[in-house]
Every structure is written in C-alpha cells, then in structure tokens.
Amino acid sequence: MDENQAVQYLESLIGQTLRVHATDTRIFVGAFKCTDSARNIILASTYEYRFPSPSAVRDAATDAENQDSAIGAASQNVKVNMTSRFIGLVVVPGQHITKIELEETPQQSRVRETLKKS
C-alpha cells in the first residue's frame, strides 16, 4: 500500500467505531477522530473496558461455590463481566497500542460480504 492509499484508508475510517487494545489489557471503544506520525489515536465518545481483577474473579468463584453447595450442584464455569466506564475524548498513545479493530454493524457486514461476492 503506497502512502496515498494509506492516507485514503485512514480518512475512510474517520467517524467509524474502533476497538483499540492497549498493552495493559484495557480496551477502548470509540469513534476514530485522527492519528499522527507517532501512531497516537484520538477517539471520541469512548468507553474503557477492563478485565476483572483476580480478587473479583476469586470472589465470584467463592459465591458460585457457596450457591452450588446450598443446592447440591457443582458448577465448573464462573462468568465475571468486564468493568466499563465512559471516558469521552481520549488519546491512546501509539506505543501502547497492541491491536486495532474496526467495529462493524450487522448491516455493514452484509454490505461487505455482498461486495466480496461481486
């Protein structure tokens, strides 16, 4: 991809929803606004998602064990939700980005699949 194509592709992403994964395992989901030569990314209307802490997982497992023993069942899997918070406008430093994903709506996926078949 030459520089012109790269610029056009980045411009096509402006306003799209991106999932940006960081080195500390956080995930930022927001509308792509811009980037720079240092690969920093600015997202608007952003939510930050974090994996549960080990203590939260332990507590959930203990609670599940207590409930299972009370009803005489044995559970193998415990589900613990990620924590999230709205942070609005954010700059994600390029050096801390591990992965970037374009979030597509079901309609966008159907259009992309239709274009592939053509």
UniProtKB/TrEMBL annotation:
Residues 8-102 form the Sm domain. GO terms for cellular component: NatC complex. This is Sm domain-containing protein. It holds the Pfam family LSM. SMART domains: Sm. It comes from Aspergillus pseudotamarii. Component of the heptameric LSM1-LSM7 complex, which consists of LSM1, LSM2, LSM3, LSM4, LSM5, LSM6 and LSM7. Component of the heptameric LSM2-LSM8 complex, which consists of LSM2, LSM3, LSM4, LSM5, LSM6, LSM7 and LSM8. The LSm subunits form a seven-membered ring structure with a doughnut shape. InterPro entries: LSM_dom_sf (IPR010920), LSMD1_Sm (IPR034110), Sm_dom_euk/arc (IPR001163), snRNP_SmB/NAA38-like (IPR050914).
